[in-house]
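Query structure, 301 tokens:
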């Protein structure tokens, strides 16, 4: 197979694009896809400071590298979740990347700084680990960005992730989530803008980016993910994609252009009723925000 751009020998085939690429042209393709996503959805303006949430995995490290490569001013944020060896190792990869590139990694440790780890804290609070984890990440990423004076938080969600989340939300018709499932969530009182610049790249592409750029990343999945619904949705979509390449892209981008606006009014209504949490000041609809309630239950004696 030949590279679509230069006709040299291809090192990767992307069936979704019906094309093969050599290493150089593949890297250019990835940069182009990220640049296009940023531009199309007005994710980052010139001169803005970006904080990228880094897990040590392929997606977040590829994202950090791509944003630096495209010339953005971007620091990393690592959140230690206290999930045994997995957390220790993912931390090492995030640090190694920051050291290699001479870039800044902001570090927060959930057990040391907040007082609980995900496995025991979620059990105490009687929550599914991934739900306690997701809530903690959303809250702490936002707080770190506000405190550090960043304009935008970027996360490494790729096309496979977004299509799988969309699939789950459609299966249940979770209309409130559908209204918020966008590649950009604008800044609102107390929340900085959140962006997903990798939505035009699949996970094979982010892995290949890391390999070609010599970036070491943690290959193991988080042990708490085993058996979660998200992985099942990914497998189902992979089977569909195998039969019909391009389906994930059509599903997700079709939703964005043709359907997502239908669910927006509900999401807007929720934003209206926000005021500061009595305990931490983060925006919430109740007196105390969901994160402060989680902390109270997860750290209760
Ligand atoms: S880190 Fe957290 Fe994921 Fe682990 S506990 Fe679940 S949500 S699976 S991206
Ligand atoms: Zn709070």
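Result returned for the query:
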């Amino acid at each position: 197979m030949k590279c679509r751009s230069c006709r040299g020998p291809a090192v990767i085939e992307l069936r979704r694009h019906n094309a093969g690429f050599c290493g150089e042209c593949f890297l250019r393709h990835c940069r182009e896809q990220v640049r296009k996503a940023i531009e199309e959805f007005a994710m980052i303006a010139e001169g803005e400071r970006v904080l990228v949430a880094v897990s040590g995995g392929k997606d977040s490290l590829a994202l950090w590298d791509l944003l630096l490569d495209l010339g953005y001013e971007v620091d990393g944020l690592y959140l230690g979740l206290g999930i045994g060896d997995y957390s220790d190792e993912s931390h090492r990869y995030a640090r190694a990347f920051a050291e290699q590139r001479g870039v800044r990694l902001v570090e927060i440790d959930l057990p040391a700084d907040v007082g609980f780890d995900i496995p025991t804290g979620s059990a105490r609070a009687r929550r599914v680990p991934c739900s306690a984890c997701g809530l903690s990440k959303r809250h702490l990423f936002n707080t770190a960005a506000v405190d550090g004076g960043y304009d935008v938080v970027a996360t490494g969600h790729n096309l496979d992730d977004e299509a799988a989340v969309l699939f789950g939300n459609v299966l249940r018709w979770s209309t409130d989530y559908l209204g918020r499932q966008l590649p950009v969530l604008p800044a609102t009182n107390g929340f900085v803008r959140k962006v997903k610049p990798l939505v035009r790249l699949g996970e094979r592409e982010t892995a290949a980016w890391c390999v070609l750029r010599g970036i070491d990343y943690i290959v193991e999945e988080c042990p708490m993910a085993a058996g979660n619904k998200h992985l099942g949705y990914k497998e189902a979509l992979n089977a569909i994609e195998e039969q019909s390449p391009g389906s994930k892209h059509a599903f997700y981008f079709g939703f964005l252009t043709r359907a997502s606006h239908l669910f927006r009014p509900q999401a807007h209504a929720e934003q209206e009723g926000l005021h500061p949490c009595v305990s931490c000041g983060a925006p919430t609809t109740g007196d105390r925000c969901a994160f402060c309630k989680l902390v109270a239950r997860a750290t209760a004696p």
